[in-house]
Amino acid sequence: xxxxxxxxxxxxxxxxxxxxxxxxxxxxxxxxxxxxxxxxxxxxxxxxxxxxxxxxxxxxxxxxxxxxxxxxxxxxxxxxxxxxxxxxxxxxxxxxxxxxxxxxxxxxxxxxxxxxxxxxxxxxxxxxxxxxxxxxxxxxxxxxxxxxxxxxxxxxxxxxxxxxxxxxxxxxxxxxxxxxxxxxxxxxxxxxxxxxxxxxxxxxxxxxxxxxxxxxxxxxxxxxxxxxxxxxxxxxxxxxxxxxxxxxxxxxxxxxxxxxxxxxxxxxxxxxxxxxxxxxxxxxxx
Amino acid sequence: xxxxxxxxxxxxxxxxxxxxxxxxxxxxxxxxxxxxxxxxxxxxxxxxxxxxxxxxxxxxxxxxxxxxxxxxxxxxxxxxxxxxxxxxxxxxxxxxxxxxxxxxxxxxxxxxxxxxxxxxxxxxxxxxxxxxxxxxxxxxxxxxxxxxxxxxxxxxxxxxxxxxxxxxxxxxxxxxxxxxxxxxxxxxxxxxxxxxxxxxxxxxxxxxxxxxxxxxxxxxxxxxxxxxxxxxxxxxxxxxxxxxxxxxxxxxxxxxxxxxxxxxxxxxxxxxxxxxxxxx
Lengths: 286, 280
What we know:
CATH topology of the domain at 68-228 in chain B: MetI-like fold
Oligomer: heterodimer
Shape of chain B: globular
CATH class of the domain at 68-228 in chain B: Mainly Alpha
Shape of chain A: globular
CATH superfamily of the domain at 68-228 in chain B: MetI-like
Largest sheet of chain B: none
Radius of gyration of chain B: 23 Å
Strand content of chain B: under 5%
Distance between the termini of chain B: 51 Å
Low-confidence stretches of chain B: 276-280
């Protein structure tokens, strides 16, 4: 381990992908997994999604549990991001898209909620950091300002608190009024997480949040996910199976627009019940 | 042998492109230098402060034409910029339907309409019913000329704002309108301002649409209802006159107009290069 990596505490170093066909050893996030009877925060029933005539999701039914981290894994184009973006109705902006089925947020139909109200409750962080070309302060204050949730006098405290929750405060406290584009990629992504947290979402959707980041920045985001799950329900899409194994309590495996298997992360990685899941996590395809 | 041929072709093409570049730059330098020698050297303060004098009387200036041009551009901007800008917002943010295609196509056609035809349009719309030439009709003609350029430049700069920023704002609960006004337009601000400045600079030199709208005037033109002098028309009138005095004045006016346009252009480029690229 080089001196550069020393300050970041990792449970173990990520294992190298195994030889094809050989299950590789995976360090689990927690050995004792939560009891199966949990409160559902989001529950999808028979969700079908079309891009024009292309059917991207074939009837997904699953539950996302409250205050837990749920990961979606699967090869590119399997529909995991599409499903994630349906949870806060981000896909509605796409022309000629069509959605059928039901998604409940705390028992309420999300398609009957006002869309901006839904997105305040279900926040999202994207694949590439997308800070607004504004100051760091204005980036964080953007959500509370447009939604009018925080008073003008309380904004400074609220921005600080949001940045602290995203473990970014110490790095940016002296340059709050400088442009956010001057931050590094990893800092920008944590800024985007802080920006989403500033709206106090109940659920946070992370769409491959580390795919544009180096390993150190990735480690920081993963540490952050651990801290956040006490206050937030987190759904993360990832291409990195080790990441899913490290951070998630539950994991869903998507293939060709179908949810093949959904279970405790331990079960998915150690004892999957479906052949496809086993093939994917052992590196036979994908 | 082959290598010799390749080197020869390289030398020939390099010289050819170099010469063409020099020709392009040289033309501008030539025009600048020529105007400076003929107009710039005889430019006095009188030009900016005095009214034109009658034929044969020395001195005099084009203060009324400067003010007239300023008023025309102000009026043109207040017509062309809002319409063009909001049209650009529509095309960039809500475009994509077949209606937008028609709008884009007609905008390009309007941009290609000869400027004198735009003058006739304003003449028919305002001068004929009113029975007299006016600043109003001239401003309208220039304003109509600004619309298509303003639409297309606004659309281009708004489109250059990455989709990821729009998604970022909407994911925080911003409506489409809020996203446009609080994120997209601020992100494209430098480009939008540059586009507007270049647009103003471009119509500042238009002569043809003013000939039978603003018409020209040897005196001050109070208000918006009377014919007014404008720099480009003044240059035209004075340059084709047989009097050496007037020809000299036309040179000066030409120099002033060119400097004005050049200054706006340089400022616009500076704004764009300073913070031009849209932060991602």
